What does this fold into?
Amino acid sequence: MTAITKPSPRRKLTHAQIEAVRHQRSRSMLLFITDRCPVNCDHCSVDSRPDSPTIRDFVLFDQILDWLGARIGIEIIGISGGEPFVERKGLRMATERLRAAGKQLVVFTSGVWAQTRVVPVWIEEVLRECACIYLSTDAFHATGVGDEQFVRAARTIVRAGSSLVVQVVAYGDGEARARSLLARALGNDWQSQAELNLVQPLDNGRGQGMFARIAWSRGESFGPCALARSPMLRYDGVVTGCCNEGVIMGQGPKRLRQHCSDASAIDAAVEGFAADPLLHAIGTGGLGVVVQHPKLKALARERFSSNCELCWKVFERMPDRSEPDRLMTLIDRLVPDPGPVEHTT
It folds into this structure.
């Protein structure tokens, strides 16, 4: 008789623990489960809308979940969108299957599901399976997710036993508002039950052009990029070599994006990105090292507002992964992996 293996117990993961794993190669992956979201935030980095696409091919999605569950080494799977909770069938499938495979789950949500006084049972069941929930709030979310909804969502997440990280765009009075709402939801000792994580606004999607860039740095000054270590897999089989929102939405270098029709193609795509010396060098040595290559030297003295902007310029000059550059391969091999790194937006 074949032994039945039990899934590893759910852990409660802090933001620091998640980041430590996310910045190491092949230990985490992001599943982009839907483009759809009813909140309509003006700053949305992926331009999600109430009528945006969502899962249609559940045969392919089933293969995606099989691949993620079987992928040795992946410990944490993030689930984002869009708003994951509007894709009820897909989210429940992902939660059940990936937890059964022993993966720790981290879900990113706006809390739009907490509209009524009694939260639906299926949502609480999903929350109880998650190691951490990232709950977003700021002035942009306020029009679609009111204070009462946020308070109800925060309380529900804590009651379900998941770690709670409240994510706030560092803009205006967002931090002060979040602290006030957390105190209202969880009491003055809210810091014993939740974390607050400030993030920089992203100049993608509907948010493009909304936030003024105030920092410009020379290409040669950029260090390793954490995003280049984290592939993303979308519900429709699109695999990207990093987790930049613009790339998953079809923008930027084609070299960073591949559409897959089945699990074997997904495997080949992920392995291909992992073996790409240019992408590997960006995540290890960093863009400042990469632009010392003769083909890229002109970028070293140019100024860029983010490493994503510079990265796209680099791939414009080296668009073909099928023709490996020997010097770039050598650069990649000579630079040691620095360990956990930050991503400069």
The two ends are 53 Å apart (CA to CA). Confidence is low (pLDDT under 50) at residues 1-5, 341-345. DSSP finds 13 helices and eleven strands in the chain.
